[in-house]
């Protein structure tokens, strides 16, 4: 959540060979200790477990929020929940066991919005085909990671645009939360407006206020606590006052917002293997593959750079620790996301919460992975959660993603204008892809006609061409 967190007192830098704070003569006490380097990195088994629990609490909202978003595409909520849990388990296990970093991997916020609201609803792509696009983006990601090509890709897209895209996606997620809560509605005169207060919207506002306070006070698991409390407050809606019919599709609309269907159920594996690989290779869909690739790639890079700063987890060259292995893990996670039935997974900035608790090794990620598994059997309980309960989490995730707006060089107009277009167009167009496409084109045009054509990297020309292809397909 907060990438500016500093490591707690007494924790060591990760590069043991260059760590002046490590206790002299400290020796591993077990095979587990030796494998993860717990003692060598100045940590303890207890600290790593607590850190894993902390990270899980900070990010477990994704178990509810991701299926809620994916179910808008026609995917079954239980199937989306199963896919969310599985990818979080496998991705976090790989991050802990192979990359040995204390980083949680789960379906990415922003990427799931791109999947559901742009690709499926915006373009009319079947969700099976969208899963195919996820797979192909994973293939390309894996190639880039295997070739260690991150520097070439990072250098191609200007830093200002990367920051702006993150901000634009954050605003987009916030808009989705406001729309899901029915606080912002359409209007034929003003385009959009605030809805009149009603029992559901009042319940949402109270839940948003509570969640905001918990986040501001840095309470572990604040988003999930907000979801649970808002769900409990929503139980009377449709029973004692108000009507929740508008919050459901017409086919399953009920007056009550919270509907009980039991606590436990067998996992729903119906979404596994449903991806349409050939359909995803249509020329009109290729831009989406590349947008997913670049978004996942940049999200991973920015997350690891932030976390490395937060926990002083750098190698002797000052780069994030085990970066190549971490990129390979993230590409693996994207690659298997489609076959499992979910939007792409990536590293989570909420991992900084566990790092602030002292987590320094892959054991933290492994603990996170194991904590996801019980939720395979809790889909009926989690489907109790109404849209007004997950909306506060969406809005506050948008707040977290706006942090990078301060890093945009607003005084450089040839950089600031394309960045502004990305920040504004992504939420206003209700399309991550379109907002990115227009910002990339604006960047190329401005550089070209202001005599700065040398600042356009070769890969950026390719991206701009893909943007033109995308926009002409609309």
TrEMBL record:
Keyword presence, tRNA processing: no
One term of GO molecular function: purine nucleobase transmembrane transporter activity
Alphabetical UniProt keywords: Membrane, Transmembrane, Transmembrane helix, Transport
Natural source organism: Pandoraea horticolens
Subcellular location(s) of the protein: Endomembrane system
The protein's name in its UniProt record: Adenine permease AdeP
Membrane topology: Multi-pass membrane protein
Chain ranges passing through the membrane: 49-69, 75-97, 129-149, 161-185, 197-216, 223-241, 284-307, 328-349, 361-378, 385-408, 420-446, 458-473
GO annotation, cellular component aspect: endomembrane system; plasma membrane
